[in-house]
Amino acid sequence: MKLPTTPLAATAFAALAFGSAPLAADNHAQSGVDPVALVTADADRTARVAKQLWDYAELGYLETRSTDLLQGELSAEGFKIKSGISEIPTAFVAEWGEGGPVIAILAEMDALPGINQSAAAIRDQIAEKHAGHACGHNLFGAGSLTAAIAVKKWLEETGTPGRIRLYGTPAEEGGSGKVYMTREGMFDDVDIAIHWHPDDENSAAARTSLANRSAKFRFIGISAHAAGAPERGRSALDGAEAMNMMANMLHEHMPQDARMHYVITSGGNAPNVVPDFAEVFYYVRHPDPDGVEEIWTRLEQAARGAAMGTGTEVDWEVIHGNNPLLVNETLAKMMDAKLRSVGGIEYSDEELEWAEQLQASLGDAAEPLSEAGEIQPYEMKLGYGSTDVGDVSWATPTVGLRTATWVPGTSAHSWQAVAASGHSIGFKGAQKAAKAMSLMAVELFTNPELRNAARTEFEAARGEDYEYRSLLGDRDPPLDYRK
Could you tell me the CATH number of the domain that includes residue 251? Predict the structure, then answer.
């Protein structure tokens, strides 16, 4: 069976069918062991690990030092670790505990290429650094690490049966690391998965995402002297540009919620040499996987037509593909309650001054700094980004949140996001996420009614005949896609 025609339709049905989540039982307080206090006590580790990951800024599938750092911290806390899972050298699973339910926390670690910035509030690039944590995955990894260790300590001190797992998940940015892990069944025995993401606001809204697929389209031509023998050449760059022209025309005829974007990654080296190779890297997004497929078919036709019209050849390699997030409102409403219990971000006077200086660079996009201290209203909405957490959410009930790690008004994938991700403002946001996730995990370990309700909603939303389908097919992980 195919996925439901729209993720929002599935989650809306679930909301009508199951209503509000069971009320929190506040079991952590009853046990006498407070997971929030455990996270607070570990603030120095959160900041240290986040800063180290920020300094490393390693790209997808190349996160060797980053994964070693996370695994080393977990090993020192007594977690059993399996590394190199799903044929990905930097992927790992760390587990502590016995019996009971299995609660997973996801941890990302990869940076973005082509952007870097110091932790200053003004534009300040770092010489010779060719990547940066513009999506805050250094905070993601550090915050999730802190949460997992706090939950481990809570399980140990209370004697509660259960297993806490941290999944080290590489290459979220265009590499779909979690998809390969999902495809191999790494989440099949997980009761609930928890994730979070850095942002410029605090929210546990039931937000779904766009399905997407990417590929590198490679044109092969014939080189020649561009002035002395132009008739002998067949420009691979002409092929790429012709494809781009047709793709840009296609934008007019795409559904409103769809997205398509590209970069030319290779277009030749000298104007007087007809390039015999060119490469263009495309992303296609749509709320529904079938919508991605429909647009993708037309994009492939554009590539073939461009090659025919320019006398070149073309082939392509699918790099990644993600299914949309399957929202679970039973869990999302509980996560919203946990986030509200820990509250928003409070800036120190020094942080406020830094934030005001950075805010000046945001122009009309700037939002009141007070929003960092607020929790956004709970709602169900469509997010226009894409994430490989989506595939996890079709394997097991999944819930997430976002915290204000960046100055309000900051866009992801910007130098301002890099700066805040290496600043104490970002570290505070990671701590808030760790507190909410630890509370959520404790609730799940001690509230079987919540777990059962979440599973019931999950099964209903997927449908009886559901079969998992990956949007990247049966390809192996593209371990060299960032090289």
Answer: 3.30.70.360
Is residue 329 scored above 70 in pLDDT? yes
- Extract the tokens encoding 125: 């690039």
Q: Are residues 128 and 166 in the same domain?
A: yes
Question: Which residue type occupies 285?
Answer: R
* Assessment of whether the complete model's pTM goes beyond 0.70: yes
What average pLDDT does range 467-483 have in this prediction?
A: 94
Q: Count up the domains in the chain and report the number.
A: 2
Quick check: 341 and 439 in contact, CB under 8 A?
yes
Domain that holds residue 249: 211-321
CA 198 from chain center: how many Å?
10
pLDDT of res. 31? 63
- Same domain flag for 227 and 354: no
* Amino acid at the residue 217: F
3-state secondary structure the chain: CCCCCCHHHHHHHHHHHHCCCCCCCCHHHHHCCCHHHHHHHCHHHHHHHHHHHHHHCCCCCCCHHHHHHHHHHHHHCCCEEEECHHHCCCCEEEEEEECCCEEEEEEECCCEECCCCCCCCCCCCCCCCCEECCCCHHHHHHHHHHHHHHHHHHHHHHCCCEEEEEEEECCCCCCCHHHHHHHCCCCCCCCEEEEEEEECCEECCEEECCEEEEEEEEEECECCECCCCHHHCECHHHHHHHHHHHHHHHHHHCCCCCEEEEEEEECCCCCCECCCEEEEEEEEEECCHHHHHHHHHHHHHHHHHHHHHHCCEEEEEEEEEECCCCCCHHHHHHHHHHHHHHCCCCCCHHHHHHHHHHHHHHHHHCCCHHHHHCECCCCEEECCCCCCHHHHHCCCCEEEEEEECCCCCCCCCCHHHHHHHCCHHHHHHHHHHHHHHHHHHHHHHHCHHHHHHHHHHHHHHHCCCCCCCCCCCCCCCCCCCCC
Do both 73 and 177 map to the same domain? yes
Q: Give yes or no: residues 271 and 357 share one domain.
A: no
How far lies 251's CA from each of 94, 246, 254, 301, 321, in Å? 44, 9, 5, 14, 20
Q: Which two tokens stand for residue 374?
A: 């607020």
Tally Cβ neighbours within 10 Å of residue 376.
Answer: 17
Residue 427, in any domain of the structure: yes
Question: φ and ψ at 353, to 5 degrees?
Answer: -65, -45
pLDDT tens digits along 229-277: 999 999 999 999 999 999 999 999 999 999 999 999 999 999 999 999 9
